[in-house]
Amino acid sequence: MVRSLVTGLCLAVFAAVIIGLSNLLSLDLEHVALLGAALGGVLGLVPHRPAWGKVVGFLAGFVLAWLGFALRAALLPDSSGGRAVAAFVVVALIAVVAAVSRGRLPLWSGLVGAASIVGAYESVYTNAPSQFLTESPAAATTVLLAVGLGFLATNLLAAQTSPSAEPVTTRPRRATTARADKADSTTDIDDLVTGAAK
After folding, report:
1. What pLDDT shows up at residue 168?
2. CB atoms within 10 A of CB 79
């Protein structure tokens, strides 16, 4: 509970820092500060092995969603149908990347990457689709900076507050044959169905 509170407070500070940097450096980060800090926090907090896989998965989803905007700007009509086709293509490609990587690039991190660019750029794109080449790089870099700071906050904090390594004790497994295991599992299921489970 304390760790969750400290992590949340650290992310809150980083969200405020992002807005402060926006004002100080004349960057357009204010509208993506909370979005970026929250998504970066999710990326940092959810465990995944290998650790680099979730970052690469995030970047893959981010790039694919950005290319989805390029597809909409170049080929698809600015209508519900065009948006539906682009959304289908982006999510399907993220799923293919996750499947081809055999889980090393998790599906969830690709979806978080897609959500970050969509959250930062969709309203800008809707207002001026023809300005994709000039507007999208600014939106992409600002949200990536915000996500990076959120990710950094959770990783720095995780390094400081990680629980001490405790020896893991395992319960010795009783020696049984495969037939006995099958009989036990069948009995357990039967007991659960009939309500006779202890």
Report:
1. 45
2. 10
